[in-house]
Amino acid sequence: MIEVIAYEKIEGKGAKIGEFTIYIKEWDQTIDRLAEFEKGGNHWISLPQHGKKDPQDPNKYNYFPTVKFGSDNQDKFLLACKNSLKEYKQKMYNTSNEGVASGGFPA
């Protein structure tokens, strides 16, 4: 089971609206700095990333994930994280929990 253990709302960073930390009991693992985004009616999350300056443009950064999965497992993992985040926000901020899918990774 994936549990969100901390959430920080972010304002003024474009589409990025928050960062959060998860705990995976089955693995006894904590992953910090997952990001939550929202833009144009779309909502998504990403695994932690690190930025490197673009060698072609010093004012631009390219971002790379620090945690990687095979594509099928990553999609399942991110869905489980997104659902856990919705549940966390519902409990903490008394928001709607509509659209939370069942299932997830790990089960």
Would you give an account of this structure?
The chain has 107 residues and is α+β, with helices and mostly antiparallel strands. It has a single domain (2-93), classed as Arylsulfatase, C-terminal domain (2-Layer Sandwich). It has one helix at 71-93; strands at 2-13, 16-24, 29-39, 42-46, 49-53, 61-65. A four-stranded antiparallel beta sheet has the order 1-2-3-4, with helices on one face. It has a two-stranded antiparallel sheet with strand order 5-6. The longest helix is centred in the C-terminal third of the chain and has 23 residues, at 71-93.
Give a topology summary:
Blueprint: E1 2-13, E2 16-24, E3 29-39, E4 42-46, E5 49-53, E6 61-65, H1 71-93
Antiparallel strand pairs: 1-2, 2-3, 3-4, 5-6
- Along the chain, the helix and strand elements come as EEEEEEH
Within the CATH hierarchy, at the fold level, what is the topology?
Arylsulfatase, C-terminal domain
Helix content: 10-25%
Distance between the termini: 6 Å
* Main beta-sheet annotation: 4 strands, antiparallel
Low-confidence stretches are 97-107
Number of E-type strands: 6
Return Rg in Å: 15 Å
Supply the number of helical segments. 1
Sheet-strand content, in percent, reads 35-45%
Relevant terms:
4-stranded antiparallel β-sheet; 6 strands; about 110 residues; 1 helix; alpha+beta; Arylsulfatase, C-terminal domain; about 45% strand; disordered C terminus; globular; two-stranded antiparallel sheet
Question: Brief description of this entry?
Answer:
It is built from one helix and six strands; from the N terminus they run ββββββα. It is α+β, with helices and mostly antiparallel strands.
